[in-house]
Specification:
Elements lengths: L2 H17 L10 E13 L3 H7 L7 E5 L1 E12 L4 E19 L2 E21 L4 E22 L9 E18 L2 E13 L5 E15 L42 E6 H4 L9 H13 L4 E10 L6 H22 L7 E5 L19 H6 L5 E9 L1
Parallel strand pairs: 11-12
Antiparallel strand pairs: 1-3, 1-9, 2-4, 3-4, 4-5, 5-6, 6-7, 7-8, 8-9, 10-13, 11-13
Length: 379
């Protein structure tokens, strides 16, 4: 594979998460620190060594193109999918030894430098993401050569500095909001110390520590309450036997609304301990009711893309249904779950101005983030 073709593939891989960004992503505006270690690999130019030994095609060459690389870096996560990282890297030490009837040549190559990358992240689930990066780096390469015979005149300590590209792809797993593990494959284009450039590939692991995240905003005073107890189900009176008397209508369904923050963490779809307590209380209130249907609806605010909000509302509705069936002992055949996304807001047009996910706008749109449960049945 040519160097130009490889560069194109790595650049496309690094940009692919950026091309799939959800519009208006919410989770961002914090800093990161991290460190990584991995295995580095480079290709030694055997032809150049053979030429220096005046023995093209006949020199005996042994090489060591592998070593340990490490890096330290810091960055700023602009939003859920775009971040900027800068850092220091050391790609390790590589060596070779060549011999021919005309002489011998041995050398060691070290490379280190600074980089600035644009990092794109595409969430796959609540904890797993894929990532790609493209950027620039400025490296210093130092060589140490020793030769005999025809190679005795080779400069012993050449050094070269230069800029080049850097690209990579990988995956990451969030253990928590403050610890993330990454696995990445990266390519550095660095000077070789002899007037040319070479590629160094690194496969490694990194630990990333996000900090400075703002806590989820508290709901405003006019927000929907965390739990609204249902009114008692009105039992239909026994029918009076009167000729041509109309049949009594069944009681109206009971609808209960929970704010999303009372059931889930911000932008999450796993029922929290606080949410389980609220749902347990709801199940106890309806004890003894004969259910015809129980409909669970998930709703989100308008921040984020329409597709992402539809997916989040569906996941939240399914999570509440699963808990009511598993812990509330409701008949699963009578419980349905549906996500309404951002299509049925409680707030009116003009109530909450702006499109940027600021803390004030997130708090204003809190009533729209909710789960509603409608129960139809009799006691």
């Amino acid at each position: 594979m040519t160097t130009k073709h490889t560069l194109r593939l790595l650049t496309l891989a690094g940009l692919s998460p950026l091309l799939a960004l959800p519009a208006g992503a919410q989770d961002g505006g914090y800093y990161t620190l991290g460190a990584g270690i991995g295995q580095s690999r480079t290709s030694i130019d055997e032809q150049r060594i053979a030429d220096l030994l005046a023995a093209p095609g006949s020199a005996t060459i042994t090489k060591d193109g592998h070593d340990t690389a490490y890096k330290v870096f810091g960055g700023y996560q602009i939003n859920r999918s775009i971040g900027i990282e800068a850092g220091y890297f050391n790609l390790g030490k590589f060596g070779f030894h060549g011999s021919s009837p005309a002489g011998t040549l041995a050398g060691q190559i070290r490379s280190e430098g600074l980089n600035l990358d644009l990092v794109g992240t595409l969430p796959l689930s609540e904890r797993w993401s894929v990532l790609g990066r493209v950027g620039a780096q400025y490296a210093r390469t130092r060589d140490e050569f020793s030769g005999t015979g025809i190679a005795a005149g080779v400069e012993t300590h050449p050094s070269e500095r230069g800029a080049g590209y850097k690209a990579g792809i990988g995956v990451q797993y969030a253990f928590s909001d403050s610890i993330v593990l990454r696995g990445e494959a990266e390519r550095y284009r660095v000077p070789d110390g002899l007037g040319g450039h070479g590629n160094v590939d690194v496969v490694g692991l990194s630990l990333v520590f996000p900090f400075g995240r703002s806590a989820a905003p508290a709901p405003r005073a006019a927000a929907a309450p965390a739990y609204v107890a249902p009114p008692p189900v009105v039992m239909a009176p026994p029918p009076v036997v009167v000729a041509a008397a109309p049949v009594a209508a069944p009681p109206a369904p009971t609808r209960v609304s929970f704010s999303a923050e009372s059931l889930f963490g911000f932008d999450k779809s796993v029922v929290s301990p606080q949410g389980k307590t609220a749902l347990d209380k709801f199940s106890a209130e309806l004890s003894g009711t004969r259910f015809d249907t129980v409909n669970v609806e998930g709703h989100t605010d308008r921040l984020g893309s329409e597709a992402y909000n539809q997916k989040l509302s569906s996941e939240r509705a399914e999570a509440v249904k699963a808990y009511l069936v598993g812990s509330g002992h409701l008949d699963a055949a009578k419980v349905s779950a549906v996500g309404k996304g951002e299509t049925m807001p409680v707030t009116q047009a003009g109530d909450c101005k702006g499109n940027s996910a600021s803390p004030a706008l997130i708090a204003c749109l809190q009533p729209d983030r909710r789960v509603e449960i409608e129960v139809a049945g009799t006691r």
